[in-house]
Design goal:
Blueprint: H1 2-6, E1 8-18, E2 26-31, E3 52-55, H2 65-69, E4 75-80, E5 83-88, H3 90-93, H4 100-104, E6 110-113, E7 115-118, H5 119-126, H6 130-133, E8 138-143, H7 150-162, E9 166-171, H8 178-181, E10 189-193, H9 201-207, H10 214-217, H11 226-239, E11 243-250, H12 258-271, E12 275-280, H13 286-291, H14 306-318, E13 322-325
Parallel strand pairs: 2-8, 8-9, 9-10, 10-11, 11-12, 12-13
Antiparallel strand pairs: 1-2, 1-7, 3-6, 4-5
Helix pairs in contact: 5-7
The structure holds iron/sulfur cluster (2 copies).
């Protein structure tokens, strides 16, 4: 138990009063680090494994306080036409543990996304919400991918489970099986994200990870994550005794074609589970990309029309899969 309380990990947010990620009212804990890099992700600040600068140029006064404070000379200010422009060397920032830049900034332009925390401190934060959870609610670990930090996830889940708190997790499936194994006894619900069953290069180039490493993902970067994801889904469906709900982000032009929906439905059927939550693409995370110095490419994808979502629901239903759309999910 002492060991459990000392385990530390990285998170980037805690949000209370959620009603979309499990039963009842819940507190969501967003883990840092993901082994995929889907361009529609609404939490791109969860993709990198460590804290990183979040910079909002509309608030910047270009006074250079952060430039002087950075011990690694990772920031520079230059001219872009008539305007000033501040640039980070994010490769250097990825190795930083000082974050003096954000401490020096007085204007609110610069913050650090993510922080390290112990299981016990995290538990102390979430337990404050207990009175709002009611009988059905609890915590949901999401991210990022919680199981890229398996010890931290396991110890937090156990800490909550031991306190009779309902526990749910959302996972992308792209981690070695051993990352799940120890946590399973402490999980009540799993949301398992599927993106596509198509392994062709065109599909992989969209959500396959440019930055996968064998350390984090368990397979080399040149291979497809799809077999690992599907193997994990099959095995969880078999060995996990709680409720398992698949999730599918509906990205028009990427995975909403009848063939992929049919393959997805048949795959779910083959696992013996029978629920899927489809999540229509939205662009609410777009602004966050500029904060971490990335471009948002997904504007080219249209938001799915209601009628198209209904067609997907009936396709799943015709194969005996209960399909819920977004926040309509009956938790
Ligand atoms: S995160 Fe670290 S390396 Fe990057 S600018 Fe801030 S202090 Fe410098
Ligand atoms: S310290 Fe803050 S306001 Fe000043 S240049 Fe840096 S980011 Fe901009």
């Amino acid at each position: 138990m002492v060991q459990t309380r000392l385990t530390r990990g990285y998170i980037f947010d805690i949000q209370g009063f959620s009603v979309h990620d499990g039963p009842g009212c819940r507190t969501l804990v967003f883990f840092k680090g993901c082994s995929l890099e889907c361009p529609w992700c609404s939490n791109p600040e969860g993709i990198s494994f460590f804290p990183e600068p979040l910079y909002r140029d509309s608030k910047c006064t270009f006074d250079g306080l952060c430039v002087n404070a950075c011990p690694h000379k990772a920031i520079s200010i230059s001219k872009n036409g008539e305007s000033d422009q501040l640039t980070f060397n994010r490769e250097i920032c990825a190795k930083c543990n000082a974050y003096d830049c954000a401490k020096a900034c007085c204007s609110g332009a610069l913050n650090i996304g993510g922080y390290e925390i112990s299981v016990e401190d995290l538990y102390a934060k979430v337990i404050r919400d207990r009175q709002y959870w009611g009988a059905a609610g609890g915590i949901t670990l999401t991210g990022g991918e919680p199981f890229t930090q398996p010890e931290f996830a396991c110890d937090m889940l156990k800490r909550c489970y031991d306190a009779y708190i309902h526990t749910a997790v959302e996972t992308c499936g792209n981690v070695p099986w051993k990352n799940y194994e120890k946590s399973l006894p402490y999980i009540d619900w799993i949301f398992f994200d599927l993106k596509t069953l198509d392994e062709s290069p065109g599909h992989l180039s969209i959500c396959a990870p440019s930055r996968l490493s064998a350390n984090q993902s368990g397979h080399p970067s040149s291979s497809s994550p799809v077999p690992l994801i599907l193997n994990n889904a099959r095995r969880l469906a078999r060995e996990f005794t709680g409720r398992m709900i698949f999730r599918l982000p509906v990205i028009p032009g990427f995975n909403d074609d009848a063939e992929n929906i049919d393959r997805t439905a048949r795959f779910i059927q083959s696992t013996g589970r029978n629920e899927i939550n489809i999540l229509p693409l939205h662009h609410l995370g777009r602004e966050k990309y500029s904060l971490i110095g990335k471009k948002y490419y997904t504007t080219d994808f249209k938001i799915p029309a209601k009628d198209d979502l209904k067609k997907i629901v009936s396709q799943f239903s015709s194969l005996g899969i209960n399909c819920y759309i977004g926040s309509d999910t009956p938790f």
